[in-house]
Each structure stands twice: as structure tokens, then as C-alpha cells.
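Practice problem: O-succinylbenzoic acid--CoA ligase
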Amino acid sequence: MRSLASRRLALAETDRIPDDPAGADRAVERLLASLGAALDGSGPALALLDASPERERLVSTLRVDLPLERDDVAAVVATSGSTGEPKAALLPATALLHSARATLDRLGGPGHWTLALPPTRVAGLQIVVRSLVAGTTPVPVVGRFDAEAFRVATERLVATPGVRRRYTALVPTQLVRLLDAGPAVVAALAAYDAVLVGGAGCPPALVTRARQAGVRVVTTYGMTETCGGCVYDGWPLGGVTVHVDSADEQGVGRVRIGGPVVFAGYRLRPDLTAAALVDGHHLTNDLGRLRPDGGLEILGRLDDVVISGGVNVPLQAVERAVASYPGVAEAGAVGVEDPEWGSKVVAYVVLRPGARPPALADLRDHVAATHPRAWAPREVVVVDSLPMLPSGKLDRSALARAAGSAGRTSRHAVSP
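Answer key — C-alpha cells:
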């Protein structure tokens, strides 16, 4: 990439794929062109923002009138955490390209992609980068994501001349809804050589269900600061290093990631950059441990840990365990202030059609089969749906505010 004396930043034109097929294809072509120019240095770096409530605040803090901190930055992407102030990650061209190439190497080679995630988020952006690397054009899911729109996009991809390998990327909620949509949609899923699933913890039971249906699921872990997923099925991509710092007696500690996929800092926030970048590594806010086979297991976020009875409880690990209980379609967990326990873990569950609410004692036994019993929820609330962020992640703040009142159909508490 040529050296720029003062690299400029421009807002990307596309913040949403249009609702008509022709418009959607034109939007993807424009994004391919502008992102290609950003990567090779012939055009400005792109600021990718979606239509979230934080958009205007981010626009005002990005200061597109000021040069970028580094000339090698190709994209600036808002982080999507469920809590905390919004910030924008500076992603160098070399980092984005390394991530894309390492992904294609891991999956078995270049291919054609279905774009089922917003390109304003790093997972969707990387589909576009991988397509540029492969010399292909992604097929967008037109309009609001649903099972039929995904099936139609898959049919278009399958019918594209010269397609040898087919890929897509989803968040777990999308995968659940596609698996629930019937044989035709499941067949569409099974047509892919790989379906990357990330953006949030993917319950093992969901992975098993998908694979039993013939879907080639690859679970991914990463974040905006690592140019998206950088650990596939527990194993780092080529060149990526993963460490678990200050592990406790259970091997649980803070995850640190190094290698050529790491971001360059946060736009105009040297204070946040200093805290997140340590000796060239990204010090994440995630808790993890190494599996017996050496692979990485993510248990949750530091800010999603509650202390119940003096024990640190990672809520995402609880959610994955609860979601694997028979009859549970989706699960969320929060800590609720409690005079005896300090905080008690409350699980919110969406049931599959016809399923009965889980008996709390049985649910606690189920969680305790794979985790310390202190992690098991002390209360369960059945709800019609869980609040979600535009990225497809659980909106834990909204869930805590709602306190289980919206859509509640039953509630079961447990004694000590």
C-alpha cells in the first residue's frame, strides 16, 4: 500500500443493504470498490457505521475532518459490546487481509459468500474482504434477514456460474431460526462448505443439532479488535497467538490475543488504546480456559461476571449450559441483587413449541453437570423472546432492565 502523508477518513455509503435485489447488488458492488480502494491506499479509509441509536454520537466523535492516527488504517468500525460507551476500532489493511487469507486457508480455499450480516459490523465486513481476496462478489440477503430471504440468496449463490466453494457467516440466533424454518431452509444451509457461527457464544447443543442436520458449522471467536473471528473451533488461525492470563484454580483467566490481526487502537482515544493494547497484544474483556485438548473455551466477558455467594459466575457460560437443556430454544442470564447471595443468577428462557417449562432443580443439575454448581441459576423465567442488539447479540442491559416482566409466563425460584 502506498504511503499517505495524512490518511483521510470517509463515511461509507452503505449502512444497510437495500430491500430490492438490484439495489442490494449495486450496494455490494459499491462497497467492494470503495473497500478495495481503502485496502490498497488509492482511496480514503472507510468509517462503517450502522443505523443504531449511537450512530450520531459516533459520527461526531470520529472527526472525519482530522487525519487518521496511522496511514495504514483501511477501516474504522464501531465496536458492538452490549454495555459500555461506543468506540471505533482502527483496522489496518494488513490486519484485515491477513485475517481474510488465514480464514480462507483454514476453510479449504477461496469461495463465494452469502452476505447475511451487516457489512457495517466486522463479521459482515470480513465477508466483503474475503470476497475481494478471492476475486468474487458476495450475494446479499435482501431486506430484513429471515429464513425465506436466506433461502433465496442461497439459491442465487448456487446458481452463480463458476462457484466451487460456498461459505456464509451467521450469529447463533440466525442459525436457530434457520434450523427451525423447515426442510427447504435446512437444505439451503447444508449447501455451504462452511457456515461460520460467531458474534456470541454458540451453545454446543446448537452446534450438534446443526451438524446432525448436515450443516458444516465452524464456531468462531474474535471481536472487532481482532478483525473478526480469529479462533475457529477453539484453534487460532495461522499467525494468531492466544494466551489465558492469571488463570485461577479452574484454569479460568483473561484472554489475550496477538498476531497480525490485532487492531491499531481506538479512534482519538489513546486512553482506551493503552488499556486494550499491551505489548502488541489485545487484552480482551473475555474470560476463557484451555480445553483438555489445548483448544480455547470462552466462558464469558469480564463485565458479564456476577459474584454470587462469593463465587465468580460467567453469565455467558450459564447461558450456553441452560440453552442446551431439552426444550429450551434460547437463553439469557443476568445477576439480580439479592440480600443473601449478593447477586443471584436468574435465567430467562424461550421454549421450543410445545415444550414445558423446565423444573428448576433439573435445570440446576443440568448446568452443574458441566460447571461448578455455584454457577447454576437460582431462578428461571420463561419469556416469549429475548431482547437482541442489531449485531444479533443478547442485549443484556435491556434484559436486566426488563427484570423478566415483559412476556413473562411463569417464574420458579429456588431455595438455598
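Discussion: The chain has two domains: 9-298, 309-413. Students who identified this feature from the C-alpha cells alone can consider the problem solved.
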